[in-house]
Amino acid sequence: MGKRKKQAKVLRIFRKVHRTTGALLFIFFFIISISGLLLGWKKNSNGYILPETQEGTSTNLKEWLSMDSLHTIACNTLHSKVSKDLDLALDRIDLRQEKGSVKFVFIDSFYEIQLDGANGNVLSIGQRRSDFLEAVHDGSLLDDYLSTDGYIKLGYTTVMGTSLLVFTITGFWLWYGPKRMRKEKKS
């Protein structure tokens, strides 16, 4: 088999791999691209995707209430202002000393309560849609729902990362291969 025929055969194989992978994973690539696009815009969404960080009255931690007191205020606020049915389990506490505020981020329904660190006043109650989008983007939403201890996320990110690598390699070769073949034909 001649060199040109071998190159053409490789191109056909790459085209088939590229097309098959794209067809099989289309919906996943669609979900990843939309969620990734929205995550890129989260801080420029006027607080819709990610609530904006509010400013408290003091950046001096010595003037702040205890974390226990702030936590109690945040939990009471979640139940009184949002819903008594929400679980009070925390995902994290995001302390913003430079802003004088602290965010209590709850696992249930991705809510956050922002408080003034010094006086405990509620600065903001918001839903962190960005946290939901991140869970969709990396597959951890299914992991949490099915309680699979990270295995779905691991499998999902492995398949999608490998597929993106395959797409990059085959896509490059589908672009470069014909150029190379034409160049060799002229010589």
TrEMBL record:
Regions that span the bilayer: 21-41, 154-176
UniProt keyword terms in alphabetical order: Membrane, Transmembrane, Transmembrane helix
InterPro entries attached to this UniProt entry: PepSY-ass_TM
Highest taxon, organism lineage: Bacteria
Name listed for the protein in its UniProt record: PepSY domain-containing protein
